[in-house]
Amino acid sequence: MLTQINGLHHVTSIASGAQANNDFFTKDLGLRRVKKTVNFDAPEVYHLYYGDEVGTPGSVMTYFPFPHAARGRPGLGEVGTTVFAVPKGTLAYWQDRFQTFGTPGLERSSSFGEERLHFTGPDGDAFALVETEDGRAPWSGNGVPSDEAIRGFHSAHLRVSDGGATEELLRFMGYEEDDRDGDTVRLRIPNGNGADVIDLQTLKGANYAKQGAGSVHHLAFSVDTRETQLEVRKALSDTGYGVTPVIDRDYFWAIYFRSPGGVLFEVATNEPGFDRDEDTAHLGEALQLPNQHAHLRKVLEEKYLEPIED
């Protein structure tokens, strides 16, 4: 069993427009945009990162806003709901805030003994807030008071047709069973980074998801260093998973592999961080380009990347 994984690092999804996506995360949710860059493989598309003040691993939601992308179809083989942690007793504040902003899909529920508030993003993205005791420092610079602000991720909810193999993988990655509720098993990293819960739901007979706007593209897990990442890569490869070589993503190094349930997993390093090319006070303000795409700045800004009004 691996011991190097801390919990989630980031969650990456697809959007249909950069401005609506930016407004939702910075205004509705009050998160900070910590990086404005481009998709390494499709530089004509933004890669936007939102999180706490410095983009701490376990707090960062990222998006590829493909202009006019068609909506995804929810189903099996994907992250169904991305869940953020908020302090105890704050769901009423958030419900009022979301009603003020016209945020759709509001619904209260309880799961695993936790109160939660469901809501949807601009592309039908499924989200929830869960009340927890969480000591992580929030970002309060976008209008949400620190006593109510999002602390980071709480969990990711995965929907698969046969949870056995995915559960076995997660246990190998260091997760342990925390609880069960019907067709869903809750797995948790002991002494993790706060974003250390996976809820794995097994659904029989449902349709498989079709990826599009509003879909999670991949789920990234956190390790501290490049050395620990290589240890994880070797262990996964030795176990039979087809893991990519290490890829430099400027703000972290990444490896990818497909989980048995169909969800694309990434293991990302906590180093070097989002301040490698911007100081902390100005994170996410200017367009940062990977070195291999720096020569494209003029054409990208003039032809492809829509201006984002903050």
From TrEMBL:
<dbReference type="InterPro" id="IPR029068">
    <property type="entry name" value="Glyas_Bleomycin-R_OHBP_Dase"/>
</dbReference>
<protein>
    <submittedName>
        <fullName>VOC family protein</fullName>
    </submittedName>
</protein>
<feature type="domain" description="VOC">
    <location>
        <begin position="152"/>
        <end position="270"/>
    </location>
</feature>
<dbReference type="InterPro" id="IPR004360">
    <property type="entry name" value="Glyas_Fos-R_dOase_dom"/>
</dbReference>
<dbReference type="InterPro" id="IPR037523">
    <property type="entry name" value="VOC_core"/>
</dbReference>
<feature type="domain" description="VOC">
    <location>
        <begin position="7"/>
        <end position="132"/>
    </location>
</feature>
<dbReference type="Pfam" id="PF00903">
    <property type="entry name" value="Glyoxalase"/>
</dbReference>
<dbReference type="InterPro" id="IPR052537">
    <property type="entry name" value="Extradiol_RC_dioxygenase"/>
</dbReference>
